[in-house]
Structure formats: C-alpha cells, structure tokens
Amino acid sequence: MRKDILYSWLTIALVGMVAALSGALHRLSMPQVLCKEYSFEKVAYLAEGQENSLTFSIRYAYPVAVNASDEVLAKLQPAVCRTVLGEAFLDMRPQQAIEAYAAMKHNEYIQNNLPLLQEWAIDHEDEPLGETLFNEELIISAAPITDHLPLITNHLLWSYAMDVYEYTGGAHGNRYLLIQNYDLQTGDAVSEQDLFIDDYYEPLKALLLEALIVQTDEAETKKDLRRLGYSVADVVPNENFYVTPAGITYVYNPYEIAPYAMGCIQISLPWDSVRHLLRN
User: Fold this and answer.
1) Percent of the chain with pLDDT over 90
2) The pTM is what?
3) What's the rounded Cα separation, in Å, for the pair 44 and 169?
4) Which residue, of 198, 245, 272, 278, is most buried by count of CB atoms within 10 Å of its CB?
5) What residues have CB less than 8 Å from 250, skipping those under 6 apart?
C-alpha cells in the first residue's frame, strides 16, 4: 500500500477516535441524575374479614446524586417527592415516604367506602355481601423519561414522569401521565413560559394541531379530526410535555382532547419545527 494512502487512513482513524473521545468526555461533563428505585406493594382491606380491598403498587425513582452540583440535587429531591407523593412527605426517607403514602391512601379508602358498605348492607340485608363491590386500585410508576438532554434550549432539560392508574369503581379505571421538567443547571422547574418566547401560544397550538393531523390515520383536516372524535379546540399547549434529543412531546390524558376509549394521546414536534419559538 502506498504510504500516502496509509497515512490518510491513519489520519481519518485518528480524527474519528479523537471525535469519539471528545463526545464521550462531553457527555460525562454534562449534568446527569442518578436515581435509586424504591417500591412498595400492598393489598389493604376495607374491613376485617371481608374481600373488598385497595390494591396499591408504587415504583418510585428518587434522585440520589447529580454529578453537576449538590445544590441541584437539594432542589430536585423535594421537587420530585412533592410531585409524586405530596408536601406531607418531604421530611421522610424515600422508602418510609412511600409506605406512609400507602397508609394514607388506605385510610382514605376506608373513610370513603366503609360508610357506603354499611349502607349497602342495611339496604340489602337479605342479599349476600358483594365481595368485590368496593374494590379499588392505585398503581404508580414515577421515573425520568431521559437521563439528560443536550443543551438544545436555554435550559438543560430533564423530564420526570408519573404514570398513574386508578380504579375507584365503575366500568373502567383511568390512566394518566403527569410530567414535570427541570433544569439540571439550576434544579428549578421549567414551564412553557420559561422555554418559549412570549407569543408562543398560538403558533405552538397550530403546530400541535398540524402534527396531530399528520400522525392520525384517516385524517387530513380538522374536520376529519372532529369526525374521528377529537375535540379540536382543546388541542392546545397544556404544560404536560417531555423532551428528548429528537424533540418535544405533548401528552393529553383521557377525556382531555378525545373520548376515554382513545386513551392517552401524545403529539411529538421535532426541535427544528419549534426552534423559532424557543427562548435564546
């Protein structure tokens, strides 16, 4: 092989190795959140000696380290706890907090349903007690959607989602996804108003509606969306979004823009399509 060709290949290989190493070092230098998962499951009965119960399950990813700053971690920990469990559990350790949360839900279940059960027993004293008449379920999975996001916007965004399924009687349960976004440079929550320019609302609304039409089979117009069951007027920026390297995704829970049967609807926008709306 000619030396000049060999040198060219060696140069290309060396440049590739340097680029790969530089990328790896850059990723390591970016703020990243390390989480530890805590979980708890329990079947809590409505009253002693009967089958009506609350089935409780939680999986909870709790931030335990941020490589950028202890100050950021000190903000993220209570913020995540507040989102998932509520203000009352901020001073507890994570495992203690989710068990206390489960106990609180058990007490609420008893308070809400035991009087109803007693009334039912009086009104139906000649009928066998409905063993599962007051069954309920609460299933929570809370975790980050992405480990970290490159600095696409003026914030280094980290999306944390709480996926909840609740059944409190009736024909079906309800599942919803709630998302909070944080800036890993500061630990502060990031809203739409922080992310987008002042006059973002109407242009973003138009982009969301256009994207919904594109991603929906059998739809080419707003009229088609209405025919399929969508409430077009409700397809608006709703603060419930998460981010990935590919773009920003808005989440609409059941009944928000469509009937329950259509489930949770997600509308994704590539960064290029919204870049003109982002704050510098």
Assistant:
1) 69
2) 0.84
3) 16
4) 278
5) 208, 237, 238, 240, 241, 266, 267, 268, 269
